[in-house]
């Protein structure tokens, strides 16, 4: 990692980024740091400069408890599916913590509004999902900025959109794309959790690069 980071600090931040679950300390985030991280997210590129994202900050214990209980139900359902298909895979999954909803400093729910920018968004005519891609770019900006600030971030995906929409009174047709656990951390793990627990390993870089066509 030191060799990569020596090229430019950005590469070091990318290499240090982790999906954090176990390392949160729960200490509050200084307001100026939180503003910088959110501002970095808001500076993300977007198709037709539509800026289709919003950020709902969730610090209240009651809301977080309700969401955590919902996530626990969805995790259990997935575990049961794994158990039916592969007991060994289920045993591996049982060792993995999938969220830090209670332990993090706060939750940030990133939403996507496909209506943003009007009916004729420049660059979205043939690929409607470029709007959603834009919101995901904002999440990536937020994640890297958090890492640069020494914070941890974890993306929670074990939830039903309709539940989270109702929980936070998000209007239709706005989509809750991600619940992000953001907070101070004791450290960032050297190895990603899923790799460390044996769930999956990173593909070799060379296998992901093709020249001129998919088959080459």
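^ structure tokens above, recovered residues below v
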């Amino acid at each position: 990692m030191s060799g990569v980071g020596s090229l430019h600090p950005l590469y070091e931040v990318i290499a240090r980024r982790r999906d954090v679950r176990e390392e949160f300390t729960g200490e509050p985030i200084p307001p100026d740091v939180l503003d910088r991280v959110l501002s970095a997210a808001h500076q993300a590129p977007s198709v037709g400069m539509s800026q289709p994202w919003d950020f709902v900050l969730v610090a209240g214990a009651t809301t977080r408890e309700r969401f955590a209980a919902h996530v626990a139900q969805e995790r259990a359902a997935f575990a049961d599916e794994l158990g039916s298909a592969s007991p060994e895979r289920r045993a591996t999954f049982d060792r993995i913590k999938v969220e830090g909803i209670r332990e993090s400093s706060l939750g940030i729910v990133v939403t996507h509004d496909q209506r943003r920018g009007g009916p004729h968004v420049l660059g979205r005519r043939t690929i409607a999902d470029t709007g959603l891609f834009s919101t995901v770019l904002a999440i990536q900006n937020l994640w890297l900025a958090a890492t640069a600030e020494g914070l941890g971030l974890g993306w929670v995906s074990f939830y039903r959109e309709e539940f989270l929409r109702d929980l936070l009174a998000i209007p239709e047709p706005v989509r809750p794309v991600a619940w992000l656990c953001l907070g101070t951390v004791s450290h960032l793990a050297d190895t990603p959790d899923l790799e460390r627990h044996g769930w999956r390993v990173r593909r070799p870089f060379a296998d992901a690069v093709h020249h001129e066509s998919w088959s080459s």
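The chain has eight helices and four strands.
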